[in-house]
Write a structure and sequence with these properties.
- This protein is mainly alpha-helical and 425 residues long.
- It has one domain: MFS general substrate transporter like domains (Growth Hormone, Chain: A), CATH 1.20.1250.
- Helix content is 80%, strand content 0%.
- Helix 6 runs antiparallel to helix 7 and helix 6 packs antiparallel against helix 11.
- The longest helix has 34 residues.
Length: 425
């Protein structure tokens, strides 16, 4: 369906939409810092507890995976509650909780069971975040704008991955990894809560600084989408939703698996010190931000988001395999360069993912529908990603492992080709 551009530029409050997504980007950035801190702290945690390399991968897999278990459960079962309460209230409650559980990770780390429990609780507290952001995007932006609107707040993820090593590695190296956790916990509260209070409102019609004409225009554009037709679980009867969920699962295996283990992998290369991670682990995600911008604009202009994402994943697989081969040869600069190009290509999926999901979910079910999608893709794909990619890296990236990695990327590309044929979006 073709949608004409909305005549909103001259209406009072039109800039509030972009202030909203900018605020969501900041909250996503801080939430992702809380998620990534464990990956960057892992080498220091291993030294403190005297873990061998094998124990680091084994116990690290649990610490990484348990977050995604809690995250997936919250997406699936708590998103309907968040939808009823409202996105603004849900965000405020979540920010308080994920800050508390980040601090708990540092405070309770001497007892491994409590340390693991803090990761589950952190996942539960962050899980409803993406569904609420998707609901807000759906309510504030028309379909032809959503790749850019979604990418605006998704960019918080990549800024987090880019800047976390630059900020947290020096902080944790000089002040201890627990200090990094505490700084994130308290800093997140001080930054995120005021922004959400000022700039996030559930709908255009409830925003005090948005003109009634603009609110009516935006909500009319949103009403062009299909209406809800029962339980969100009925979405699994839709082939397009199933195909997207499958591609999302495999995407999270690859993308989250690489993001989880990249700092530890680079730290294990000969001649790389822990402090070097402050820039080595950040460089690939400069490319991701460039890619996110390019693919979002290209997707909105061509209306072929699934096709672009599928092509990007074939390139992702080839480049990731080449990066691991360079790592086997211990060519650090080439390894980082190839990982950077791989992450650039994988951002084609990230730029289009939620726009595609929003396209196949009926209006009124966006939060709960995205909760199902994000819950299953993150719990299964994110949960298995650190194990699958960790096994490939720990095994020395043998030929069979490299073929398995490329095969995962090829499966995503095939699933997205079917999505493209079904929804032409």
């Amino acid at each position: 369906m073709s949608v004409n551009p909305l005549p909103t530029d001259k209406l009072r409050g039109s800039s509030e939409r972009w202030k909203l997504v900018a605020t969501l980007a900041v909250t996503f950035l801080i939430a992702y810092y809380d998620r990534l801190n464990i990956s960057l702290a892992m080498p220091l945690i291993a030294v403190e507890f005297g873990w061998t390399e094998a124990e680091t991968y084994s116990r690290g897999q649990w610490l990484l995976t348990l977050f995604y278990v809690g995250y997936g459960i919250a997406n699936i079962f708590l998103s309907p509650l968040g939808q009823r309460v409202g996105a603004r209230t849900s965000l405020i409650v979540m920010i308080v909780l994920w800050s508390l559980f980040t601090a708990m990770g540092a405070f309770a780390s001497q007892v491994m069971v409590l340390f693991m429990a803090s990761r589950v609780l952190l996942g539960l507290s962050e899980g409803v975040h993406p569904p609420m952001m998707n609901q807000l995007t759906s309510d504030w932006f028309a379909a032809h704008e959503r790749s850019r609107a979604n990418s605006a707040w998704v960019s918080g993820l990549f800024v987090a991955i880019l800047t976390a090593p630059l900020i947290l590695v020096p902080l944790m190296e000089h002040s201890g990894w627990r200090t990094g956790f505490y700084v994130l916990a308290f800093g997140g509260l001080l930054v995120s809560l005021p922004l959400v209070w000022l700039f996030v409102h559930d709908k255009p019609s409830t925003h005090p600084r948005v003109a009634p004409e603009l609110a009516a225009t935006l909500e009319a554009a949103s009403s062009q989408l299909a209406q809800a037709d029962g339980s969100p679980w009925l979405l699994f009867r839709r082939p397009a939703f199933l195909l997207l969920t499958g591609s999302g699962i495999f995407n999270n295996m690859v993308a989250l698996g690489i993001a989880s283990w990249l700092p530890t992998y680079l730290a294990g290369l000969d001649g790389v010190r822990y402090g070097d991670l402050s820039y080595l682990a950040a460089i690939p995600y400069v490319a991701s931000l460039l890619g996110l911008t390019l693919w979002a604009v290209l997707g909105d202009r061509t209306n072929r988001r699934a096709t672009i994402a599928g092509g990007g994943y074939l390139a992702t697989g080839a480049l990731a395999v080449a990066a691991l081969m360079a790592g086997n040869a211990n060519i650090v600069w080439l390894t980082v360069t190839l990982f950077s190009l791989s992450v650039f290509c994988v951002s084609a999926f990230t730029a289009s993912e939620f726009a595609l999901v929003q396209r196949v979910i009926p209006r009124g079910q966006v939060a709960s529908g995205v909760g199902l999608y994000n819950g299953f893709t993150t719990m299964i794909g994110g949960g298995l990603g650190p194990i699958v990619i960790g096994g490939i890296i720990e095994g020395g990236a043998a030929t069979s492992d490299l073929l398995r990695l490329f095969g995962l990327c090829a499966i995503i590309s095939i699933l997205l080709a079917f999505v493209s044929r079904r929804i032409r979006y």
